[in-house]
Amino acid sequence: MRYLTKDIAASFKHPEFWALSSWLDIVVRYRRSSLGLFWLVLPAVIYIWGLGGFFAHIAGTPLFKFAAHVAIGYAVFRVLSTVIVESTTAFASSSAFIMDGHVRLTDFMLRVIAKALFYFVASLPVVAIALAIYPDLHWTGVFLSVPSMTLIIFNVFWIGVVFGLVGARFPDMSQFIGNIFMFAFLLTPIIWRADGMPADSLRGMLMRINPLFHMVELVRAPMLGERIEMLTFYYMGILTIAGWMAAVFAYRRYARFVPIWI
């Protein structure tokens, strides 16, 4: 029987496997390309200045005001989407290690999370440029974004565990989640503003049911001087507690079956 908190503590105590392997995965993936590790930055440039500029023009908003909105939303969303999508195949793609006796599954979850955070750090220079040209940047909100992002990462742990176990049991989950996130990106206010969706409208209700919206807003709104709805605080509190309870239970109950499932 595996205990989640015990395995997480052991993984942090011995980070050699997951920290090094996550970095090697990125290096091996890009070392033969002409642009090399610049590919880590390029998606942020395309989304923030390309897609962001396009939708800023449609909305009639100056890019220097809209770029920061897109930049922060994209950076947070990418962390969440990378962890959720890749965690569904984390155990299956590491089956050789698991079959060889490496049964501390949190190492493979941290490997996915570390890779997502590498992508996040790589996008920060592009995000910083967008923030630098934003006219109403709130520095208090910038400092508040650190504990907000810490809370997001704290939630990312249980998300990775739950989706990792479900993905190990149901191999088709990765395809399903990949397609769902194409819709989730449009449902989350990354390239549009949340204040255009009243709470009593259908689209407004769908947006507020979406947990990705609340996670993005928790980091972005204070930085841009925007108000955070009280619903977001309640939502994140319940989500964090319920999510960790579900992850602890699922890991204790089903982690031992992963070698059989994969």
Name a few traits of the molecule.
262 residues; mainly alpha; 12 helices; globular; ABC-2 type transport system permease protein/lipopolysaccharide transport system permease protein
State the helix count: 12
Q: What would you call the shape?
A: globular
> How many distinct domains?
1
| Average pLDDT over all residues | 86
Structural class assignment: mainly alpha
Listing every helix as H and every strand as E from the N terminus to the C terminus, the arrangement reads HHHHHHHHHHHH
- Radius of gyration, rounded? 19 Å
Strand content of the residues, in percent? under 5%
- The total beta strand count reads 0
Q: What is the helical fraction, as a range of percent?
A: over 70%
* Multimer state: single chain
Largest sheet: none
Distance between the termini: 18 Å
Uncertain runs:
none
Can you put this structure into words, describing what you see?
This protein has one domain. Helices cover 75% and strands 0% of the residues. The protein contains 12 helices and no strands. It has helices at residues 4-13, 16-30, 42-59, 63-87, 95-99, 106-132, 139-169, 173-187, 202-209, 211-223, 230-254, 258-261. Helix 4 packs antiparallel against helix 8 (173-187) and helix 7 (139-169) packs parallel to helix 11. The chain is globular and about 55 Å long. Pfam families: ABC2_membrane. Belongs to the ABC-2 integral membrane protein family.
